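As a warm-up, study this chain.
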Amino acid sequence: MTISRHYVLAAGGTGGHLIPAFALGQELINRGHHVALITDARGAKIPGCPDKMATHLLPAGRITKKPNSWFSGILAIAALLLGAKEAVGTDIDVQALEASRDNAGRNNIADELFPLYLPEDLPQVKADVLVANILAGPLVSLAPQLSGLVKSGGRLALSGILAEQGDEVAAAYAQDFDLDPIANRDGWVRITGRRR
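Now compare it with the structure written out below.
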């Protein structure tokens, strides 16, 4: 028996930027879960959003919009606002970490509830779920460290990966995870799995 859960996805921009969120959302809906998409006004008008996915527009002024950091930390912030006890964030880009901290502050999230780290400073936490929507190169190079952060039985969701890069990224995680079939939509893929 599958337990229905509620998921919040965050994505911004237009076109291809939303495809990984749509693909992940559709898969969760297909499995009987409830999904909400948090996006900006432009993103909410893009066709292709699954029919059963609720769309929520971000309130003006609540998210810092810096180049390459528009939605930094927003998924963790949404989880905290919906009741998660803690979220841990990491990024290879100091500017993205600064934007995440600023976005958390704008949403009254205390620093101690959302610690942020560069990968080399990240403590060895064990997470129930790890979500990453970054480039294929960092996903591959960080695979040993990211895999080590997921507890046995925990879930992995990787997106923002071009279709031609999917096999390489999947191979980097295959020794630690029982991977689901790669989901491909309009040239973007999503890789999910459960930690052994």
